């Protein structure tokens, strides 16, 4: 078995994707000018990578199944029974849906209710904690604002349709009050929703919500008439600079809005939606899986551990570890479990102890099986490394 396998990765053409970002940044061809939303790197059945084995191409799933202990490592195979993470490049031209990912128990129960088959609500039986690392300035909404701050925003909106629910919330500034207010928003009648959104539009035209205008105006333009337009009033709005990262736990209500980023997550495609989407919304299931609690804005960005040219972003899950490495000359890396290395810019060269070499350019990725043990990395730019 070789030490390095160049990956061929699936491009997902979702409607919210960018027609130019992946081509401009990574040279991904787009002759038909399709919205290219994501590149998947991993072994999830909904978008499994292929690996180059000499002149042949094999699915990564099949390669793992053929020799799981040597490819993944005994510890990883024993704990996860498969490659436990999924790596993506995400390029958003318009916002992704307002969404929540279930925890492990919720995913297992939901998938079982569907007969252990992929369905409208659950695609698999796994949780989906995730990290997002900005390549370009990246707009996102993540976690509930403090309850009083949410109340103040909706008082400023001053929409009669919301006043009864808002009065209840003001008397219950706690997790239960937040949950009840959120459900009331999501269950507005079509006529009530249109009145509230019209009120928001009038407020914006009069110069209101200055600190949220960039988010609100973008959502108005991309999803006219969608109740998710109100999300910046109750979720934190964050613009990550390139190199910034956030972690999103299961149960966290969030939406990515605009920009290009790396995403790494547990190997799952489970998404429950509340708005900013033409896809199915299952409000009761989403509410059941959402953690209704305040989030403090200063806790959202991850603080990396820095060691020389490497930045390690700590996450509170065992499914993946994520590091970004800068320019270096012959840096030795140990392999304790299967790895995927993705080049973000410049050129990277990998070499094992037996002299096998592979050269990668920006946007290219390589799968490194556990049996490789150790290899050297030389690069002119940055790359990210995912392992468990």
The end-to-end distance, rounded to whole angstroms, is 21 Å
Choose one word for the global shape. Answer: elongated
Proportion in β-strands: 25-35%
Mean pLDDT: 96
Structural class based on helices, strands and sheet pairing:
alpha+beta
Number of helices: 12
The tally of strands reads 23
- The percent of residues in helical segments reads 25-40%
Strand neighbour order, sheet with most strands: 5-4-1-21-18-23-16-15-14
- Biggest sheet character: 9 strands, antiparallel
Gyration radius, in Å: 22 Å
Low-confidence stretches: none
Descriptive labels:
27% helix, single chain, nine-stranded antiparallel β-sheet, 388 residues, elongated
Task: Please provide a brief summary of the model.
This protein has helices spanning 21-26, 60-66, 68-72, 74-80, 104-113, 147-157, 163-170, 175-186, 190-205, 213-222, 231-234, 283-289; strands spanning 5-8, 10-12, 38-41, 50-53, 56-59, 85-92, 98-100, 130-134, 138-144, 235-240, 245-248, 254-266, 272-275, 305-307, 310-313, 321-325, 328-334, 339-343, 347-352, 357-361, 365-368, 374-379, 383-387. The protein has 388 residues and is of the alpha+beta class. A hairpin with a 2-residue loop joins strand 4 (50-53) and strand 5 (56-59).
Describe the protein in words.
The protein is 27% helix and 31% strand. The protein has 388 residues and is an alpha+beta fold. The chain contains twelve helices and 23 strands. Strand 4 and strand 5 form a beta hairpin. It has helices spanning 21-26, 60-66, 68-72, 74-80, 104-113, 147-157, 163-170, 175-186, 190-205, 213-222, 231-234, 283-289, and strands at 5-8, 10-12, 38-41, 50-53, 56-59, 85-92, 98-100, 130-134, 138-144, 235-240, 245-248, 254-266, 272-275, 305-307, 310-313, 321-325, 328-334, 339-343, 347-352, 357-361, 365-368, 374-379, 383-387. The strands form four sheets. It has a nine-stranded antiparallel sheet. Strands 2, 3, 6, 8, 9, 10, 11 and 12 form an eight-stranded antiparallel sheet that branches. The longest helix is centred in the middle third of the chain and has 16 residues, at 190-205. Helix 6 (147-157) runs antiparallel to helix 7 and helix 7 (163-170) packs antiparallel against helix 8.
């Amino acid at each position: 078995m070789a030490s390095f396998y160049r990956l061929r990765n699936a491009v997902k053409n979702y409607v919210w994707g960018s027609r130019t970002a992946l081509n401009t940044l990574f040279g991904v061809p787009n002759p038909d000018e399709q919205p290219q939303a994501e590149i998947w790197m991993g072994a999830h059945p909904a978008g499994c990578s292929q690996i180059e084995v000499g002149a042949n191409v094999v699915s990564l799933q099949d390669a793992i199944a053929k020799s799981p202990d040597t490819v993944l490592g005994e510890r990883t195979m024993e704990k996860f029974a498969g490659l436990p993470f999924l790596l993506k490049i995400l390029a958003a031209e318009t916002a992704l849906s307002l969404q929540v990912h279930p925890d492990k128990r919720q995913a297992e129960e939901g998938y079982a209710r569907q007969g252990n088959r992929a369905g409208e609500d659950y695609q698999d039986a796994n949780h989906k904690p995730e990290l997002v690392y900005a390549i370009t300035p990246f707009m996102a909404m993540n976690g509930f604002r403090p309850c009083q701050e949410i109340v103040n925003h909706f008082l400023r909106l001053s929409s009669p349709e919301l006043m009864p629910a808002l009065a209840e919330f003001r008397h219950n500034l706690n997790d239960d009050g937040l949950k009840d207010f959120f459900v009331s928003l999501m269950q507005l009648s079509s006529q009530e929703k249109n009145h509230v959104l019209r009120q928001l539009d009038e407020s914006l035209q009069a110069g209101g919500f200055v600190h949220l205008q960039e988010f609100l105006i973008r959502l108005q333009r991309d999803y006219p008439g969608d109740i998710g337009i109100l999300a910046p009033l109750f979720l934190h709005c964050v613009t990550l600079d390139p190199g910034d990262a956030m972690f999103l736990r299961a149960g966290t209500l969030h939406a990515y809005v605009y920009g290009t980023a790396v995403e790494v997550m547990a190997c799952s495609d489970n998404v429950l939606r509340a708005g900013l989407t033409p896809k199915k919304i299952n409000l009761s299931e989403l509410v059941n899986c959402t953690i209704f609690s305040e989030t403090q804005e200063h806790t959202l960005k991850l603080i990396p551990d820095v060691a020389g040219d490497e930045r390690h972003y700590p996450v509170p899950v065992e499914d993946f570890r994520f590091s970004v490495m800068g320019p270096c000359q012959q840096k030795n890396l140990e392999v304790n479990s299967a790895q995927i290395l993705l080049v973000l810019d410049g050129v990277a060269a990998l070499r094992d102890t037996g002299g096998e070499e592979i050269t990668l350019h920006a946007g290219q990725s390589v799968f490194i099986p556990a049996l490789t043990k150790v290899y050297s990395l030389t690069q002119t730019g940055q790359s990210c490394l995912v392992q468990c």
